[in-house]
Hints:
Elements (H helix, E strand, L loop, with lengths): L1 H47 L2 H12 L11 H22 L5 H18 L1 H11 L5 H12 L1
Helix pairs in contact: 1-3, 2-3, 3-4, 3-6, 4-6
Amino acid sequence: MTYNLVTVVLWTITLLAGLVTVVIYYKQLRVMDASIKAQNLAWLIQYLQASDVRHARFVVMTELSTKPFINWTLAEQEEAATACAAYGVAGVYIELKRVDKDVIIRNWGPSIEKVCEICKDFIAYQREKSGQRYWSALIWLNEEVKKA
């Protein structure tokens, strides 16, 4: 009987040690995940604030906001594509839960909505040409902005 008791005690200690190890690893993974999300957010903010992306948003919101899509030049379409693609990238990161949705929507929500509204015919044209999955994350992000 003593042998059985010692075996049960040792087995229990081993099990508890294993559980403690799993809990510690889980907490470490959560800290690593938070760190990666912070790095992703820093990268995304840097990307959204890059001069070419900012310039593209400026062109969309100033020059293209009053101009019908049919009259956009190729250069203007490239600017619109840059602005839309940037928010599309943000949408992918947010959909995958790799960055905090609230931070992006709180800071870029009005811009996302305006760019999508101004570029709606351009977006539809690109999606018709390239398939409905094209810029699907951009469409999703704009819907999330409207819900907020």
